[in-house]
Design a protein that fits this description.
Layout (H helix, E strand, L loop, with lengths): L2 H17 L3 H7 L1 H4 L4 H9 L8 H8 L4 E7 L2 E27 L5 E25 L5 E6 L5
Antiparallel strand pairs: 1-2, 2-3, 3-4
Length: 149
């Protein structure tokens, strides 16, 4: 497969994969759930927003499946918590010292002692959003990461 054919095929696959994780896609694939919501809730769901009082179905349409689920047990009872995770990447340069096997100008392999610098990418995960449901299955709290600007 040539690069001309592979690149568009990869882009189409990527767009399809990304398009499956949007409120619009979830609404399109679950119209029977969406139609049961109040008009103001429908508007927020389309924007990917959730508020206290929303059902699990509304949260699913707005945000998708959670990355993690927790159970909080208090004196008032058990509460289910849906957690949504975000990631970011940092890059560090690290020095590596050691023996390396290299091919010299004659084509022979030999071992040399050297120091090289390498870039190391690290993916960091953080909880960006938590949605807590009460005993009745309705949202009682929404927690978001606060970012100062």
């Amino acid at each position: 497969m040539t690069m001309r054919v592979a690149f568009p095929a990869v882009m189409v696959a990527l767009l399809l994969a990304v398009g499956c994780d949007t409120p619009a896609y979830r609404i399109k694939t679950h119209p029977e759930i969406y139609e049961t919501l109040e008009p103001d809730v429908q508007e927020n769901v389309r924007k990917g927003l959730v508020r206290p009082g929303y059902s699990r179905d509304a949260v699913f349409l707005a945000l998708g499946q959670p990355d993690r689920k927790y159970i909080r047990t208090t004196a008032e009872g058990r509460h289910e918590i849906w957690s949504y995770v975000g990631t970011y990447t940092t890059r560090d340069r690290q020095r590596v010292e050691g023996r390396f096997r290299v091919r010299d100008s004659t084509g022979r392999y030999r071992t040399v002692r050297d120091t090289v610098w390498v870039d190391v990418d690290r993916v960091h995960e953080y909880e960006r959003l938590r949605v807590e449901f009460g005993k009745d299955g309705r949202v009682v709290a929404v927690e978001q990461v606060h970012q100062e600007r």
